[in-house]
Amino acid sequence: LVRPRTGCASIRQRPCRAPASAAVEPRSPSCPDPALPAGAPAPALAPTPTRHHFSDPEEVEALRRNLLAWYDRCKRDLPWRALVRGDIGKQRWGIMWVSEIMLQQTQVATVIDYYNRWMQKWPTLQALAQASLEEVNELWAGLGYYSRGKRLQEAARKVVSELGGHMPRTAEALQKLLPGVGRYTAGAIASISYGQATGVVDGNVIRVLCRLRCIGADSSSPAVIDQLWDMANALVDRSRPGDFNQALMELGATVCVPKAPLCGECPVKQHCRARCRKLFGKPAPVPDVEDCGVGDCPLCPPGTQPWDSSLGVTNFPRKAAKKQARAMRTATCVLERRGCRGGPEYLIMQRPSSGLLAGLWEFPSLPLAEDLQEEREREVLADHLQAWMGQPVAAKSLRFIGEVIHIFSHIHQTYVVYSLPLDGDVTLDPASFPSRWVTEEEFHASAVSTAMKKVL
Ligand code: SF4
């Protein structure tokens, strides 16, 4: 069921506890490598043992049945699923696309409200294509990874202006034609909205498959990811691909969770080799084929990090150590004036249209050098405000309020927050610095990041 990439199925069946010399098997004469000159020795192919695959068609059928039956009974009631069941009409385009894009790196509970507001505001592709980026950013504010919203809108414009308003319907075409649609999103849209029998691999699927088949090599490595895509494509149910993919993801989100999986309630526990290993203290027996050893198998845990019995099934998956987030300090100043209705108003300015938080609004801010002393920070910020406002700003008039820490995926950001009450107005050049005064209510309705809300 796992289609070999090379077409040489026999090589894949090799048990990985075979002696190293035997693991280097020449390419089958029936599928010669066209890149090699005649008679040249074939390169070594990494063994991919049966223990890590689904090689029994009956087991695959049983797994599909068990998983789908559980999904039918236990799936969560999510707004995009309600639409799939109901009369979706013109909304078919957005049901999976919008929800899948929003769900990247974001929890379901957070997404639901954003999804509902989005679909209410832009129920059709045409409506989204006509929206301004400012409107998209306003609705997306607080959801993070802002380029997702921007790309979604760009893709909608492309569908309307270049594809005659018709969404591509296969994973290949979706990925090729739409900006911001990667392999996972393409597979999810094609299988769930259009019934294409294609698999998906996201974080939840990685966890479930690695546990089902004891894959303990670095799960972010290209070799393992390729194996998992092959497995997902082989496993997906041919008659209910969308439901099967959602069921696998749902299992990872609700049962096969990262830290304390509920193996006793798991609908596929009888197919799970990690659980079997936990229960019996050794690798699951695989008919006809030897168990893996540790060390020379490309899918087993590396020899330096063997199975740890105290972790049980959570031995899988394994990830390479995360790169440490970069530390950054930014001085930010909340300029405040009395508004015409007597309440306070704050000055916000727009960030550049590319890079981190592109196009979002923020309080005037200035990245700081790493080793700057606190007094110098204040002076540097005062100089910056002075140049920007075209009027003198004394460093001592800036009141230090405190520090706000916000973690972006790759940046540990500290905002050093100052405030500056103003008596009169400030005249700014709108061409170089798009800016505006807002009340607190308007601030929260604007396209501002969660970090800036913390600053306020
Ligand atoms: Fe995950 Fe446990 Fe189910 Fe295996 S038995 S798939 S580890 S929940």
TrEMBL record:
Reaction catalyzed: Hydrolyzes free adenine bases from 7,8-dihydro-8-oxoguanine:adenine mismatched double-stranded DNA, leaving an apurinic site
Source superkingdom: Eukaryota
Keywords: 4Fe-4S, DNA damage, DNA repair, Glycosidase, Hydrolase, Iron, Iron-sulfur, Metal-binding, Mitochondrion, Nucleus
Region Disordered, annotated ranges: 19-56
Keyword Mitochondrion in annotation: yes
CDD domains: ENDO3c, NUDIX_DNA_Glycosylase_C-MutY
Gene3D superfamilies given in the database record: Helix-hairpin-Helix base-excision DNA repair enzymes (C-terminal), Hypothetical protein, domain 2, Nucleoside Triphosphate Pyrophosphohydrolase
Family indicated by similarity: Belongs to the Nth/MutY family.
Name under which the protein is recorded: Adenine DNA glycosylase
